[in-house]
Amino acid sequence: MADLAREVEAIRGDLVAWRRHLHEHPELSFQERETAAFIERELAKMGEFEISRPTGTSVVARLVTGRPGRVLALRADIDALPIEEETGLPFASKNPGVMHACGHDGHTAMLLGACKVLAAHRDQLHGEIRFIFQHAEELTPGGAQELVDAGVLNGVDAVIGQHLWQGMESCRIGVRAGELMAAPDTFHIRIIGRGGHAAQPHLTVDPIAIGAQVVVSLQQLASRRVDPFEPFVLSVTKFVGGTADNVIPNEVELCGTVRTFREERRAWAAQAMEAVIKGIAEAHGASYEFRYERGYRPVVNDPELTAFVRATLAEEFGDLVTEAEPTMGGEDFSAYQTVAPGTFFFTGIRRADREAYPHHHPRFDIDEDALVVGCRALVALATKYLGQP
Predict the structure, then answer these.
(1) How far apart are the first and last CA of the chain?
(2) pLDDT tens digits for 88-123?
(3) Is position 353 annotated as part of the catalytic site?
(4) Are residues 308 and 328 in the same domain?
(5) How many angstroms separate the CA atoms of 59 and 112, rounded?
(6) One domain for residues 45 and 11
(7) Each residue of 133-158: pLDDT tens digit?
(8) Where is the domain boundary, 261, 293, 325?
(9) pTM
(10) Catalytic-labelled residue, pool 137, 206, 365, 367
């Protein structure tokens, strides 16, 4: 097959232009109407694709070769976050309070680039490539499950996705078999006491003092009840209560997240947390409400497909391919992995010559050189997987 690396390099300008347009016009989860319309227009210019809209804010493009072979799905997420951008970039968000602060603009650009290059080589491929431009990765229940329910992965033999990753040096690629990203569950707690004058705390049931004990005790679930070699995170991220410095309130609200890899640990966490909350609340004469909400499943990469991805990318990029470090962040790519063998890999975007702001930060940015690497990776994987029947 032709030198596809050169062909990807030749569309560098397109990759950057697509990414910057998307960055300038971000849309929140389940609201990506203009984003999806833009993707559909760009795909229509390329020709060759059977384009569908399985939901109002997602796009699927099928490249059907007409020759027998396997079906490969490549996925990019397209939504942005409710963050006010502070990068000062000339192509910064024009939508107040909305920002591409996680790299999804780059994911979309790289997949569009793969579409453009692979469409030109349709006659050299076998089977089918299904390009999935997925909405709503950032907000549960997530767009991936909606697309699975809509049948987008029906007949797919393998699904591959990637994430631009600030935790890795730019243009390096991280691959890992097995557990890669955690299940991101959330919890909501209300401690209901009896308010009163702050000068007479003995006449109240102080929900702030009780809530503080709950926070400290919940941390001991991780430090004293879970094997230190098992990944487990429990973070209280919101504590709301009170209206004045001389008033003890009637109630407080606590929220947070639990991150795990094992299904049995998720079930245990919900039960253990409620036991702690119940015991402390009742010991102090308070009542409580507790709600534990399951997020996405953990991303667990198929070993056989991951071995193929590792070998193919090592052939393409050599020593730039490394072992990815697992993260307690979540990803709804896991929904696809319930239907077909799937693997998810990281493409680094951290540059040594500038400050690296983390994902979901108002000053988050990517190294656009990584767009070429990520696009090349998708093209290499598709041509290798479908290069022969």
Answers:
(1) 15
(2) 999 999 999 999 999 999 999 999 999 999 999 999
(3) no
(4) yes
(5) 11
(6) yes
(7) 999 999 999 999 999 999 999 999 99
(8) 293
(9) 0.95
(10) 137
337 is written with which tokens?
């992995």
Q: Which of 163, 168, 83 is nearest to 330 (CA)?
A: 163
| Region 371-388 average pLDDT | 96
For residue 267, the domain's CATH number is 3.30.70.360
HEC assignment per residue over 210-267? HHHHHHHHHHHHHHHCCCCCCCCEEEEEEEEECCCCCEECCEEEEEEEEEECCHHHHH
* Catalytic residue selected from 79, 105, 206, 332: 79
Domain around 15:
4-181+298-385
- Going by their DSSP bridges, the two strands 59-64 and 50-52 should be labelled as antiparallel
Q: 79 an active-site residue?
A: yes
Same domain, 334 and 278: no
Domain boundary, last residue among 277, 293, 309: 293
- The total number of structural domains in the chain stands at 2
Asked if 109 and 8 sit in the same domain, the reply is yes
219 falls in which pLDDT band (50, 70, 90)?
very high
Measuring CA to CA, how many Å separate 298 from each of 81, 152, 175, 208, 336? 21, 21, 16, 34, 11
Q: Supply 218's token pair.
A: 């919940």
Residue 209: the pLDDT is: 98
271 and 352, same domain (yes or no): no
Mean pLDDT for 329-352 is 97
Same domain, 44 and 187: no
Read off the pLDDT of each residue in 360-380 and give the average, rounded to a whole number.
98
Give residue 171's identity as a one-letter amino acid code: C
| Closest listed residue to residue 171, CA positions, set 24, 14, 9 | 9
Share of the chain above pLDDT 70, in %: 99
The amino acid at residue 143 is G
Q: Please state, in angstroms and rounded to a whole number, the distance separating the CA atoms of residues 189 and 208.
A: 12
